[in-house]
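retry 2 of 3: previous attempt timed out while embedding glutamic acid. Reduced batch size to 1 and resubmitted. Inputs unchanged:
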Amino acid sequence: MSTTPYYIGRLAPSPTGALHLGNVRTFMIAYLRARSQGGKLIMRMEDLDHPRDMPGAAAAAIEDLRWLSFDWDEEYTQSERLPSYKAALDTLVAKGLAYPCICSRKDVENAQSAPHSGEQLFYPGTCRGKFASWEDAERAIAPRLPCWRFATPHNDAKVTFNDAFAGTFSSDVASTLGDFPIARHPSGAGYTLAVVVDDAAMGVTEVVRGDDLLAATPAQILLFRALGLKIPQFCHVPLVIGKDGRRLAKRHGDTRISSFRASGVKPEEIIGYLAASCGWAKPGEKISLPHLIPRFDLSTIPRAPLVWP
Ligand code: GLU
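retry 2 succeeded.
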């Protein structure tokens, strides 16, 4: 009998700051979704965001997660996997599906033909076919660095997928994002390419993450397709937001796990609060993460974001 688990999930923190309530709610859902099915869980530290990565944040996040009783079966660090991203980039370049771009954010904004929502801007492909190599592009804008863009096929970029939480989601990447950026490093090491390469390489069967990445998912699906990789299922869950409607951040007060811990709050109180917000515990109930495994139910999570406090 095969011992390969049929469900492989992942926790993918970025060490750009301290772990807070918002991250933990999403990780709790991802963890329980995997464990309640007897699935495997991967911890992947996404440390490719160099200007924003904070020294010590990766180790601190792991410590906070362990304190909250999270466990995982395998651990990876993206900065140790650069050759995999380079190989994927080389494949895309060889197929004419990736090219270096020297446009600044302002250039991209000026080229915008229609307003597009979200953080990602529509890019019409101004630099497509302009540079023979990254080095050529680099010379053209030194000391700034180019970025790698995906050459989105104009007639073959419609993506529809059935998100386990958000339902059916469709987008034509050619008209919403255009030639989206895949990395800002010569070797192809950047979030968008790396997340696709890694989810496939690690055999992830379902990606559970915050729904701020829902709109970025069709672009990732195009990359899976272009690289001939197996596309996982997706499950995008609502975020924790502040009263101002914005994603939980420093301005909403100190919600760092390390601060709760320092002030004597117990893991069971934090997990209990977050579990109650998902319908798995009574308000005020204290419960540990392992005790929640049998209570997990995706369908009781409210559709609306959780508002803190
Ligand atoms: N590392 C990303 C973040 O913390 C999440 C990426 C993902 O789940 O695909 O924002």
